[in-house]
């Protein structure tokens, strides 16, 4: 018993996972209640429309910060003891991302009527929603800079506590808006998120890095061409994903709405919501633990040791969790949604299989980000996006909405094979 206790207390990954697990439980609880509220007050069609808006906002937010998220975490971890270089990197990134966010804000403000017609396509005008989102973009940039410091300096408790508080506040505000204003409130709830994140982030960042450096010392307008080039390599990787992933999701969802119906598109969106709850545990853990680790050491041996440790420590728990989700699907649909979403149930098995392969592959793929390997990252990402779209277009007419989640599985099998081929030296070469 004492040796087992010692193992848990000395295992940093398990410590992070336990803190992260608390956050995920809270997130799932909040998401469960929110899913039911959306199902009752917006319905499957409303959930599909929310999916389109969420895909759009996530893609634009990545463009606003120019895809610097992982780069900021990497350099915060690399230069956590060299404040001169840290300031140099952060101020250069700040100059670029603030200008980018302001430019995008102006463009979105102008084209809001067209966005409303294409993404929402209802009799009610939601132009103001898009214009409010435009105003929120600089706030999102500020928030990402703050959280990148917490992750890079490995202040995991503070980072997870921040995410918990933000989730609770967003839930309260969104639930109020949906309850009182239905779909309109749901859409406003999405675009208000960056304002809420930024305000709470300032409170939590205070003294978060042990008084070593102030956040305001790291932001400001400064230019270093060499640093900018380093960040733009991360930018290329993130922006390709930010453009392709939401675009394909919107295209596929609109195709589902056209070929099958709005309700079926809502079932798929509901399945994505359920998937996002348990995937959040894995992806946030990879981002918090694996990326900073791989950024510190570029040897093949260290890479294999890190991913093997992650697989042995975390994958068994994740697999058990996914199996539990499958056998609980009837309860999940009953309590998280309502009878209108019963068509979701056949989607679970395919979504869970695809998500497990996705988790296994994502751990490997983070090596491209840690090593700033643009070419391999782009090859893998483009193949993945194209394969999902192609499989979806083939399987949707044959199997209806179930064909989309079957395409999800086929896509991640292809993605895994591509990643293994691209990382064959690191994975199979015994040299360091």
Q: How would you summarize what this structure contains?
A:
It is built from 17 helices and no strands. It is mainly α and 432 residues long. The model is unreliable at 1-5 (pLDDT under 50).
Secondary-structure class: mainly alpha
Largest sheet: none
Binned strand content: under 5%
Give the % helix: over 70%
| Shape field | globular
Order of helix and strand elements from N to C terminus: HHHHHHHHHHHHHHHHH
Total strand count, please?
Answer: 0
The span between the termini is 36 Å
List low-confidence stretches: 1-5
Q: What is the arithmetic mean of pLDDT?
A: 82
Radius of gyration: 21 Å
Any idea how many domains? 1
What is the number of helical segments per DSSP (H or I, 4+ residues)? 17
Describe what you observe in this structure:
This protein has one domain (2-428). Helices cover 85% and strands 0% of the residues. It is built from 17 helices and no strands. It has helices at residues 2-10, 12-41, 43-64, 69-78, 83-120, 127-152, 156-191, 193-205, 215-218, 225-259, 262-296, 300-327, 329-336, 348-370, 374-399, 402-422, 424-428. It is globular, with a radius of gyration of 21 Å.
